[in-house]
Amino acid sequence: MPISTDSEQTTGLPPGLRLLIVEDHDFQRQVLAGLLRRLGAEEIHEAACGHSALELMATLEPPVDIVISDLDMPGMDGMEFIRRVGESWHEPALVIVSALEPSLIRSVRTMAAAYGLSLLDTIEKPPAPRELLSALRKYKPDQRRLRAPPMEEHYSAADLEAAMVGDQFEPFFQPKVELATGRLCGFEALARWRHPEHGVLSPHAFIDTMESRGLIDALTDVMLDKASAWCAFWRNRGLDIKVSVNISIQSLADVGLAESLIERVRRQGLDPCYMILEITETAVMIEVGRVLENLARLRMKGFELSIDDYGTGYSSMQQLTRIAAGELKIDRTFVNFASHQNDGRVILRSSLEMARKLNLTTVAEGVETPEDWALLAEYGCDQAQGYLIARPMAADTVADWAQQWDPERWLTGLSPELKQ
Known about the structure:
Layout: E1 18-22, H1 26-38, E2 43-47, H2 50-59, E3 66-69, H3 78-86, E4 90-91, E5 93-98, H4 102-114, E6 119-124, H5 129-137, E7 145-146, H6 157-165, E8 169-178, E9 184-195, E10 199-201, H7 207-212, H8 216-236, E11 242-246, H9 249-252, H10 257-267, E12 275-280, H11 288-300, E13 304-310, H12 316-322, E14 327-330, H13 332-338, H14 342-357, E15 361-364, H15 370-378, E16 383-384, E17 393-394, H16 395-404, H17 407-413
Parallel strand pairs: 1-2, 1-3, 3-5, 5-6, 9-11, 11-12, 12-13, 13-14, 14-15, 15-16
Antiparallel strand pairs: 4-7, 8-9, 8-16, 8-17, 9-10
C-alpha cells in the first residue's frame, strides 16, 4: 500500500535528528525514508527487522534519537524489539507506524511506557507527512532517557550499607503546581544516591536490593528526616509548601512505623500536617490489618496520605474506600496515554471525576508537554508534576528555583491555542 504524500506542511523538522526506520517491507521502508528526507531529515538509518536494528544501534555513535518502527515483522516482531530497546543503555524515543487494530496499538503503547521508553506517537499506515512531522516535533533532547551503564545498575547490600553509613543518600525535590493558577504548592522528595565514583544515581540502582535485603526502613528514615528538615527550613523562610515522601510497602507492615515517623518529623520542628506520605494501591493487599492500623494512626496524627501511581495496581476502587487518603496521584502512563488516544482520555476523565466526588485532591504525574497540561486543566485536575515544570533538583537549589518561579509568566508562556 503506497504511503500518503499529501501536500501538508513538509518543513519544520527539528534539526540534527538521527533517525532509524525499522520496517520489513522494502518498498514502504524506502518511501518512508523519502518522506523523512522531504521533511528535512538529514541522517536516516534503515533496518529490515528487529535483529538488524539492534545490531546497527550497537554500532552507532552518537546513538539514534528516534526509532520509527512497525510492529508486525517476521523474526523479532515489534513488541520484542521495543522490549530489547527498553532494556538497552541508550533509549531512543519511539514512533510506532502500524496497520494493526487500535486496541492492540493501545496495549503496545502501555507496554512501551512500562519499559521506560518515550513513545512520541502511534500512527496508522500509511502515514501522512503532517502526522509524521507532528510526532517528530514532540521529541525533546533534554528529556532523553538514558540508563546507567550495566556495571552501575546493581549494587550489593554491603555497598548500600556502606553508603548508608557514609550518609550518601539524600532527597531530590520535584515541584508540584496548581493547574488553574500555576501556584507552587509542594515538592515530592525522591531518593538519590550520591555515589563517590558514579555520581548521582536514581532509585533503579538500589531500591530493589534495599527491599530484598531489609535495608528499606533505614532509607525511609533518612528520607523522612532530611525531607522534613528541608520542609521546615523552607517554611520558616516564607515558602508555603508541603513535602511528599514515598513509604515502602514493606515498611507499612511494621506496627511501630507510625510512632517512629511522628517522632522523626516533630524532631525537625515540623507539624506532620505539612508532610504527605505516598503509598501505592497494592500496599493494602499485604498484612491488611497492620497496614490499615499504621495508616489510620498516621492520618490521626496529622499526616496527609496520598495514593501513588493510581491505576497501576489491583482493585483500585476498593483501595480508595480502605485508605483515609486526601490525595490521588494519577500515574504518568495514563497522563501520556490520554494526550494521544481517545480511550486514554475517557479513563483519565473518569478517574478525575471519581476523585472529585470523593473529595480527593488530584495530582497528575509525568506532565511533559503543553498538550498534557491543557488536557488536565480541561478535565479539572488540581495539580501537576513533571518535566514540563521541572526535573527533580538538589535541595540546595530549591529556594532559588522557587524564587524564580513566576506562575503568571508560566501560564502566559504556554501556547495560546492550548490555554483555556
